[in-house]
Amino acid sequence: MSEGQKPYTGGCLCGAFRYQASGEPKASGHCYCGDCRKASGSGFIPFMAFPASATRLIGETEVHESPSARGTTATRNFCPRCHSLVMGGAIGKDTTYNIYAGSLDDPSLFHPTIAVFTRGRPEWAVIPPTLKVLDIGK
Question: Distance between the two ends of the chain, CA-based, in angstroms?
Answer without folding.
Answer: 36
